[in-house]
Amino acid sequence: MTETIQRPGVRPPATLLRFATAGSVDDGKSTLVGRLLHDSKSVLTDQLEAVEDASRKRGQEAPDLALLTDGLRAEREQGITIDVAYRYFATPRRRFILADTPGHVQYTRNMVTGASTAELTVILVDARHGVVEQTRRHAALTALLRVPHVVLAVNKMDLVDYAEPVFAVIAREFTAYAAELGIPAATAIPISALAGDNVVEPSSHMDWYGGPTVLEHLETVPVSHDLTGCHARFPVQYVIRPHTAEHPDYRGYAGRIEAGDFRVGDAVTVLPSGRTSAVTGIDLLGRSVHTARAPQSVTLLLADDIDISRGDLIVPSADAPPTTQDVEATVCHVADRPLTIGQRVLIKHTTRTVKAIVKDIPSRLTLDDLSQHPAPGQLVANDIGRVLVRTAEPLALDAYADSRHTGSFLLIDPADGTTLAAGMAGASFATAAPATAPADDEAEWDF
Questions:
Q1: Cα gap 191→291, rounded to integer Å
Q2: What 8-state DSSP symbol labels residue 192?
Q3: 45 burial class (0-12, 13-18, 19+ CB within 10 angstroms)?
Q4: Among 214, 167, 239, which residue's Cα sits nearest to residue 19?
């Protein structure tokens, strides 16, 4: 049995939590983030001095903590968040990567970017206004992106006299809506980001609330980075052939294990070709190991000299995903130019990029009420809709519900490399309509 020896006085490494903030305009997202950084002593002295100086120039007596995250000049001038601001901080209990996302409807794509890798989303609401349309939009996006944990931060409680009934009504309404979306659990916390109530320190104004502060919940929410129980997936990034006297016949397949684990002796299948072999060796950081697991970067050695190249997927033979040329998915359109039926695109899935055609756009999702607008014909910036894409070569996609790593993809403009849409394969709470092929496909892209 292997034991872990801990040196005296040395703490074990803290776990990492990636989380995103979301909410309507002026709900106080950036102020909450600034308060978290300030009260957890994660702000450098020169940063705080710069914020205090900028606040004085704007005629404010107290430092505007929102300026710690709103770094763009346009954001400071307008008092809004436009782009995703990433911040890194740590406490003795945990490390954090925080994405402060915009609240405006026209920046929905930015919120998708920030939440796509998050393990928790903090959704803010103004205690005076309660759950509004943008609150429901952000809850729907959180459910769509399969973010496992949700915090409802009812902000500006100081402006409603810290009244418990106000908080209770909002928490009850949001929890009911979250249940409709399939969000398993939402934690509601009453706060005042401006005054610091229940952000890092418990509030003396809300003795009726006995739950955790925002930081306490962030530090203790269970987050598992153990992907060994998932379907084992290894996208090949590079084929290593040294052709040296020391390694004349060496052929290794380098990449990062996205999920699961691989062991020497495992029977594996290479997709999309379907060829089979067995793992004869695993090289990790210049040494041979018997087992490797996600998210380690390794080189796999196989028993058979078969044709494998970048973009192929090595999986256990007993747990191989199906391959398909017809990809049905939910996408968030992020480009300024529209996505249209019949459009030629590239689809990038893990390390594989293939040509494709948008065969149909069955529906566009209305986030206000989760209704479907059938046959929209195109998707424009910030739209979320169902698409059917026909690829030139088979792809081995998992359902996004099963794996956020191998169930996601990008649609790219082949002309200039612009990212058009971020996609999530398989079913979602959006119901796809029957697909209809466009009338005219261009010959060189007709698969």
A1: 47
A2: B
A3: exposed
A4: 214
Cα(389)–Cα(392) distance, integer angstroms: 10
Helices (H) and strands (E) in the chain, counts: 7, 24
Helix (H, G, I), strand (E, B) or coil at 11: coil
The predicted structure's pLDDT at residue 414: 96
79 pLDDT above the threshold of 50: no
Tell me the three state secondary structure of residue 176.
helix
pTM of the predicted protein model: 0.80
* Nearest in space to 258 (alpha carbons), one of 239, 224, 233: 233
User: Which among 333, 330, 345 is positioned nearest to 392, based on CA atoms?
Assistant: 345
The stretch 151-164 carries a mean pLDDT of 96
CB atoms within 10 A of CB 326: 13
Q: How far apart are CA 441 and CA 358, in angstroms?
A: 10
DSSP-assigned states of every residue in 59-99? T-SS--GGGGT--SHHHHHHTS--S-EEEEEE-SSEEEEEE
Residue labelled with tokens 């970017």: 113
Measured in degrees and rounded to the nearest 5, phi and psi for residue 170 equal -65, -45
- Tell me which of 60-64, 273-277, 440-444 is least confident: 440-444
